[in-house]
Amino acid sequence: MKDMHRISLRVNGREHELTVEARRTLADMLRHDLGYTGTHLGCEHGICGACTVLVDSGPVRACLMFGVQADGTEVSTVEGLSVGEELSDLQQAFSDHHALQCGFCTPGFLMLAEAYLAERGSAGSGAATGDGPHAPTEAEVRELIAANLCRCTGYQGIVEAVLATARARRAAAGPADGP
Amino acid sequence: MSVIGTRVPRKEDPRLLRGCGRFGDDFSAPGQLWARVVRSPIAHGHVRRVDLTRVRRAEGVAVAVAAADLPAGLTIPVRLAVRGIDLSGYLQPVLAADVVRYVGEPLAVVVASDPYTAEDAAELAEIDIDEAPAVLDAAAAAGDGSPRLFPAGNVAADFTLGYGDTETAFGQAARVVEIQVAIGRHSGVPLEPRALLADPDPRTGSLAIYGMTKVPVFNRDVLAAMLGIDAALIHVHAIDAGGGFGVRGEFYPEDYLVPWLARALGRPVKWAEDRAEHLVAVNHSRQQSHRVAAAFDATGRITALSDEVVHDNGAYCRTHGIAVPELTVAMLPGPYRVPAYRGRVRVVVTNKTPCGTYRAPGRYEGTTAREQLLDVAADRMGIGRLELRTRNLLGPGELPHRRPMTTLGTDMVLDAGDYPALVAAAAAEMTRLGYREQAGRDAGTGRLRGLGVAVFLEKSGLGPADTADVTVSETGAVRVLSGGTSLGQGIETVLAQIAADALGVGPEAVDVVNGDTDLQPFGTGSWASRTTVVAGNAVHKAACAVRARAAQLAARMLEAAEDDLEVADGTISVRGDPAVAVGLGDVARAAAPASPYLRPGEPTGLAARRRFDVTHMTYPYGVHAALVEVDPGTGRVRVLRYLVASEVGRAVNPALVEGQLRGGAAQGIGGALLEEFTYDETGQPQATTFMEYQMPTAAEVPPIDVLLAQAAPAPGNPLGVMGAGEGGISAAGAAVASAVRDALGLTGGVARLPLTPQRVRVLADTGRDSDAGLP
């Protein structure tokens, strides 16, 4: 007898109601029940990070969370980053810096970086005034993305893309960094 | 200006960035069932019983089959047969019947309503195996006293390549240097696990397949032969693939089981492996031990080279047969002037996962062995490491150089280049970038710095042929149907650039389809750094033919002489009179049936199919340099700087070539320091998650400097391209080993890769006598 639960959640701003087995992972639910196949499964044990999505704005590994635990939450997946065919600034930076080859790990890196950039942008008033948190350094971005695995690129393009997006967002938000 | 050589944005990027890629597990069919493979938990033993009674009774199970339920005697054939060596006694059965030979070997397969149910049901299988001693050490397995895995013995092949009189050369040498080097068992491990969907059409008996990559036409033909149906009934669809690196897309047992089950059940069957399965089921690679020696004259010139290789092949000979060990010994002399050479390799079966190719197969291993040897020899003779190499490199005047051997059935003709010039350029780049200065700096707190360098010779563009179709539609859109496959390398962009260049259109007007067996039934796939070379030149030829045909038809439409026409930006116009012009789409309409511009007997459509044939490979080359810091207390090695200098003939898209080189180097650093499939004494695999199989993260891979050389266009193809897929990894084991040896001040070699903290600590403690080899 399967242990089924009725849940509701928002994915990329859209309401979903569904019945899901208690043991079904959030990743399988997103991919196979709701059709968000942009979230990828690389290991199913929480190491590779390809399945990273945002739950209530925080990055989680969708293979380590059950679908029922997402009841009542707001989930963001890679499909929600772009508007139609228009790439987001971060997605465009990934292309510009050759930050992807096979693209399988890419949704996880995009969501991880998006959460990081959003958190920094909203930390205090720094992004708006230019005197808050310093611009991310290469070392900080490397430490961040060391959370996930990429087998194709050697990571250099990913680091550059995240740094470039951080710089562009700060520049757009307010005065340039001081010396 | 030609679009070839420019950094065109990748055509693949938008779909992949938006989450719209379609990878293996993204395909589903209405009414599909899910398969789960039951694998052997024992490394070696006789199968007494595989009882699926409880599996079949489980709710949601459609069918469960063991070897006895399949057609008898099915084995996976060799794709790359070389040297006429018969491996028929060592092939892998689709399901093990009487004997299991590695943990993870398929014993049965269960099909159920969903993947969770299938996995639960598979656990109910009752397996009774009479366990036999596991054979795990290849050198010991080759000896007489070892338990046998197969009736014919544990040595599946034993052969020697070479030329010249090595015996005399070693006897008369001023100096002989010999070392032992072992390479650890590791593999490609793409981030996407394998997945397969087989969807039968009961009306026609045909079968749609999603998930076969790399060599889809070959796999289609193998599957057709095993199922006993015509190959035209099987349609392998093009999909996105999450990395290949040699392992993905070879024909594995599941590639038969899933389609066979779908046909038997008359329903779509899907299978998606998990990572634990992947790490024991998909081809391993690399595990070899080398006893390599060189004879030198008094001036440090090599007079002979020899190598004795033991190749640990795992439990069966799979699709690559003995291609990896053959390439190992064939490529061992590398870019050097070697008057006499002898390379012997014994291919030994053991109770571990079977092996196949992993990016730069045989070269990663052989380059590590040879370059370690040269480092040790340089020190012993008191010659600089780079100087010793420069003295022995073939000079530009000596190329093309015919090496009296064959590999993969082709004569070895090192075709073009200036090896010493690239070594000098790399040395200058190391100085310019501060490598030497940083190497000399005191790292502090007892840490030691070392600088390593290694020279490699690669091979690429293996034939015999590839085929491409280029079609222009009435909107002027160009479609390329290529025999390559998209494994993540960006080949759609590269082929679009090649077609655009020949046709005089922008690459955005070109759409490339790779790996669909109905659209391109003659494709030979993407492997061996061959696609840009072989498929690329096929696209070039087909696009040139379309351009010539377009000019012929445009001449009729414009009532002008063909010689007076020029093609640019998708338009054909009369030279000097740009108003008199037709678009490529107009020409396509003029080639439609019943067009007044078509002459009797002429084919309809603006399209061409062309084949590019090659008889010889083309040989890229380059240099790797690594700056490392070793903590002798913990044994930890950090790579601080890394340089890849690589000659590629002509870079169709330099950004993509640099990406290949950087990504390859990252993988190579992984194999040099971190990644290893280890086993306990009973043959239980110890690396079955990413906790134990450690792939490098951004914390382990430094920024990688690239010196991209385009000084030696390949003479054997119109585009002048050499392959670029493997130069980034080829010498990475060698360069890291060289740097660690330098840091620790070893007199011998590092003995073994990967240089894990435990091994580095032993080297640091005993290092001045490291020739003895390490456990």
How would you portray this structure in words?
Chain A has 179 residues and is of the alpha+beta class. Chain A folds into 2 domains: 4-80, Roll (Ubiquitin-like (UB roll)), CATH 3.10.20.30; 89-173, [2Fe-2S]-binding domain (DNA polymerase, domain 1), CATH 1.10.150. Chain A is 35% helix and 15% strand. Chain A has helices spanning 26-33, 89-96, 106-122, 126-129, 138-145, 156-173; strands at 4-11, 14-21, 52-55, 58-61, 74-76. The model of chain A is unreliable at 124-130 (pLDDT under 50). In chain B, the strands form 7 sheets. Chain B has a 7-stranded mixed β-sheet, with helices on both faces. Chain B has a 5-stranded mixed β-sheet with strand order 7-15-14-13-8, with helices on both faces. In chain B, helix 9 packs parallel to helix 10 (363-381), helix 10 packs across helix 11 and helix 10 packs parallel to helix 19. The termini of chain B are far apart. Chain B has 3 domains: 17-132 and 193-241 and 248-281, Aldehyde Oxidoreductase, domain 3; 369-457 and 618-772, 2-Layer Sandwich (Aldehyde Oxidoreductase, domain 4); 463-613, Aldehyde oxidase/xanthine dehydrogenase, molybdopterin binding domain (Aldehyde Oxidoreductase, domain 4, 2-Layer Sandwich). Chain B is α+β, with helices and mostly antiparallel strands and 775 residues long. Chain B has 20 helices and 28 strands. At the A-B interface, helix 1, helix 2, helix 3, helix 5 and helix 6 of A face helix 1 and helix 17 of B.
Can you identify the CATH superfamily of the largest domain in chain A? [2Fe-2S]-binding domain
For the record, the count of structural domains of chain A works out to 2
- First CA to last CA of chain B: what distance? 58 Å
Q: Which strand order spans the largest sheet of chain A, edge to edge or round the barrel?
A: 2-1-5-3-4
> Which superfamily, in CATH terms, is the homologous superfamily of the largest domain in chain B?
Aldehyde oxidase/xanthine dehydrogenase, molybdopterin binding domain
Principal-axes geometry of chain A comes out as globular
Over the alpha carbons, how many angstroms does the gyration radius of chain B reach?
27 Å
CATH architecture designation of the largest domain in chain A: Orthogonal Bundle
According to CATH, what is the topology of the largest domain in chain A?
A: DNA polymerase, domain 1
Second CATH tier, the architecture of the largest domain in chain B: 2-Layer Sandwich
Q: State the low-pLDDT regions of chain B, or none.
A: 771-775
- Biggest interface, CB < 8 A: A-B, 57 and 54 residues
Measured distance between first and last alpha carbons of chain A? 65 Å
Beta-strand content bin of chain A:
15-25%
